[in-house]
Amino acid sequence: MKSLFTTIMAVTLFTSCVQTQGQKVNIPLGIKGKGTANEAVATFSEGCFWHAEIVFQSLVGVRDAVSGYAGGTTTDPDYEKVSSGQTGHAETVQVYYDPSKISYETLVKALFASMDPTELNRQGNDAGTQYRSIAFYKTEKEKQIIEAEIRRITDAKIYSKKIVTEVIPFTKFYPAEDYHQEYIYYHPENSYVQNVSIPDFLAFKREFKGNFK
Question: Is 17 in the active site?
Answer without folding.
Answer: no
